[in-house]
Design goal:
Layout lengths: L6 H9 L9 H11 L3 H32 L5 H50 L2 H5 L3 H43 L1 H7 L3 H37 L1 H10 L2 H53 L5 H22 L1 H19 L21 E9 L15 E3 L7 E3 L7 E5 L5 E5 L15 E10 L4 E5 L6 H7 L8 E6 L2 E2 L5 H7 E4 L10 H6 L7 H10 L3 H5 L18 H15 L3 E5 L7 H15 L3 E5 L3 H6 L2 E6 L2 E6 L1 H7 L2 H13 L2
Parallel strand pairs: 7-12, 7-13, 10-11, 11-12
Antiparallel strand pairs: 1-6, 1-8, 2-3, 4-5, 8-9, 13-14
Helix pairs in contact: 1-8, 3-4, 3-6, 3-11, 4-6, 6-7, 6-8, 6-11, 6-12, 7-10, 8-9, 8-10, 8-12, 10-11, 16-18, 18-19
Length: 662
């Protein structure tokens, strides 16, 4: 943006029409809650500020005494004392400054610790729905950039404001005592400090928020394309240049906004500097005449000039204080936005642990809609960014002046998103419903193996996600041993349910650490026994580093079959009473498949198991087969019973299981 055609002042005037920054009492009270545990340190910090201010104000008085008394009167003793004092003042000021910095750093770092831990804890409590509808890079930005901005507000901005207020008040008191007429003359320019600050504050606050949003978008782009899966996709489709162009576009937006902010800030401080120079010139001009007339001494005007510099510096900072303060509050606002997202899968206040589990699973007329949210719920972060993957390069962002996109999310995070048509009043209609389950009702007895079969999109995965309470049913109940899952504690539910998903995830850590994630207190013998049961111990033992082998990002240093067997060993080590798994082995070689099938037989022994079955052997071994279609349970029974009915299962058997042998 240039400053021609009306200049930057016209631009600032135009900004008066934009959203005005509001720093509410509730926001300030909430920020204060994070500083309350450190009240003692804050009080000591304020004391240190008072001390440094008092020490700083001594130097001009020493200079006046030197010029008016020691030198004219040839007072060598006073001269020596003043020389020592001029050296002592900065030493004392420096020592108190170090103490002050230690206190401010402690308070700032402690607040950032509390904020970051609180934010991470809240992320952990949010449902799977939130993570399927938010980009990881944006979450990282909230945890890093925004929290650091909030720290700066506490350890720098707020302390600077208080320090400047104290210095202005103290300096004014001494200046009035020295010469009240010159003090009033120096304050004539005060309104000219206020007007530019008032106009530019709103602009810089808006630029700060836009900068945070753009940085979050850039972080999200990096996270999507620099992880193993994203990098693989980019290379397979040869989109390196496209992704580079996309990253350059995001980086350029961040750069341009930074330049924009710097230029506006420089204009602002240039104007303030000129105003300060005018005030100083007026004081020296009139003061010079009064000195010539003998109204007061040269030492007084020298001291007065020094105090004037100490007054205008903090005064300029204070005129910009609303700008800095409003900007710093943006960081807190963005952190609180996340902390205020309601917890969708909440633990009931009277929830009881799930003990002595037999393993009876019941779905009591369960309905589930992935788009249904309770009042006040948000699916994901407000600044979710979607890109036009067609020919255009427009960055689409939620906010004023754009059409919202309706997004229907599936459990694996894939989405059907389309541009939502506007209603007559210009608002977006409700998102289209995506009902995954419709009045599903069944029961699995303790120790039974239940096989889930059905075409793609029938609701099989949704059923497996409801059992460990990754989601809550929209209607009906899910029960274990007759107890509604919403009435039991989440930890006890997790302890009793083991789940192996089709997409195996391993942390970038050693095999040992990935296995012990299921049971940190397991012994070496227990861990090895679990690995043997999963048919993976011999492979691990043959590696150069054995169980200390680092598996790489998402476990990609291992093959698909090896990752799955590690995941199975992890579940065996957990030793849950209920097992939920997606038996996806069709993409593996026959040896890996045989090893995994043998491992699954071990893990299912003596447990209630619900398996999304892909193999005929699993289906034949099942005590009950549940056949899903379009979200409904259409058939149930044994293999022979379902074949005799000649329904959907018989059709699937003829087209998939018998011909594929899986």
């Amino acid at each position: 943006m240039g400053f021609h055609g009306g200049g930057w002042w016209a631009y600032l005037s135009h900004d008066e029409e934009q959203d005005r920054p509001v720093v509410t009492r509730d926001l300030l009270r909430r920020v204060g809650q994070f500083a309350r545990p450190y009240t003692r340190e804050v009080v000591l910090l304020l004391v240190s500020i008072l001390l440094t201010t008092a020490i700083t104000l001594v130097s001009p008085l020493l200079m006046r005494s030197l010029i008016d008394d020691a030198i004219p009167n040839a007072d060598r003793r006073l001269l020596n004392l003043l020389a020592v004092a001029l050296v002592t003042v900065p030493i004392l000021n420096g020592l108190v400054g170090v103490w002050q910095r230690k206190l401010s750093a402690f308070v700032g770092e402690s607040v950032i610790f509390d904020l970051r831990c609180g934010l991470y804890e809240h992320f952990q409590r949010l449902s799977l729905r939130f993570f399927t509808q938010s980009r990881t890079g944006e979450l990282m930005s909230r945890l890093n950039n925004d929290v650091v901005g909030a720290q700066s507000a506490v350890s720098n901005t707020l302390i600077a404001i208080f320090s400047n207020i104290v210095q202005v008040v103290a300096t004014l008191a001494i200046m009035i005592a020295l010469e009240w007429r010159l003090t009033l003359l120096g304050l004539v320019v005060l309104p000219f400090f206020y007007l530019p600050a008032r106009r530019i504050g709103r602009v810089l606050r808006d630029l700060r928020r836009r900068s945070m949003v753009l940085n979050a978008e850039m972080n999200a782009t990096m996270n999507e394309t620099l992880n193993v899966s994203g990098a693989l996709l980019v290379k397979l489709f040869g989109r390196e240049e496209r992704e580079l162009a996309r990253f350059r576009r995001d980086s350029a937006a961040v750069r341009d906004l930074g330049v924009h902010s710097a230029v506006i800030g420089r204009w602002f401080f240039m104007v303030l500097g000129i105003i300060g120079a005018v005030g100083s010139a007026l004081v020296y001009w009139v003061g010079g005449y009064l000195t010539i007339e003998g109204a007061f001494t040269i030492g007084t005007i020298v001291a007065f000039g020094a105090y004037l510099g100490q007054l205008y510096g903090p005064l300029m900072a204070l005129t910009n204080a609303p700008v800095e303060f409003a900007q710093s509050m943006v960081s807190f606002e963005r952190v609180f936005e996340v902390l205020d997202i309601p917890v969708e899968i909440a633990e009931a206040p009277d929830a009881q642990p799930l003990r002595d589990v037999e393993g009876r699973i019941a779905f009591d007329h369960v309905t589930f809609d992935y788009t249904a949210l309770s009042d006040g719920q948000r699916a994901g972060l407000a600044e979710v960014v979607r890109y036009d993957w067609g020919g255009g390069e427009t960055l689409v962002r939620r906010g004023r002046g754009r059409k919202p996109r309706s997004v229907a999310y599936r459990p694996n995070g894939a989405a059907d998103d389309t541009e939502a048509p506007e209603t007559a009043n210009g608002s977006a209609p409700a998102a289209p419903q995506r009902i995954a389950l419709k009045d599903v009702d069944f029961q699995i007895e303790p120790g039974q193996l239940a096989a889930l079969v059905g075409p793609s999109g029938a609701g099989k995965t949704t059923i497996t996600y409801l059992i460990p309470r990754l989601y809550d049913p929209t209607g009906g109940r899910v029960l274990i041993d007759g107890r509604d899952l919403r009435s039991v504690t989440l930890n006890s539910l997790a302890e009793n349910i083991g789940m192996v998903t089709q997409e195996t995830y391993l942390f970038y850590d050693t095999i040992r650490a990935n296995l012990l994630y299921a049971r940190p207190d397991a012994t070496e013998a227990q861990m090895i026994a679990a690995a043997r049961a999963a048919n993976i111990h011999d492979f691990i033992a043959g590696l150069p580093d054995g169980y200390e082998t680092v598996v790489g990002e998402r476990g990609y240093r291992l093959s698909g079959g090896e990752r799955q067997r590690v995941a199975i060993a992890r579940v065996i080590l957990k030793d849950p009473r209920i097992l939920v798994l997606d038996e996806a082995t069709s993409h593996l070689d026959s040896l890996s498949e045989a090893l995994i099938q043998d491992a699954l037989q071990h893990v299912m022994e003596g447990r209630t198991s619900l398996v999304i079955a892909h193999r005929l052997s699993t289906i034949l071994a099942a005590d009950v087969i549940l056949v899903m279609n379009e979200g409904r349970l259409v058939e149930r029974g044994t293999h022979e019973e379902l074949l005799a009915r000649g329904g959907l299962y018989a059709s699937l058997y003829e087209t998939q299981f018998r011909t594929e042998g899986v």
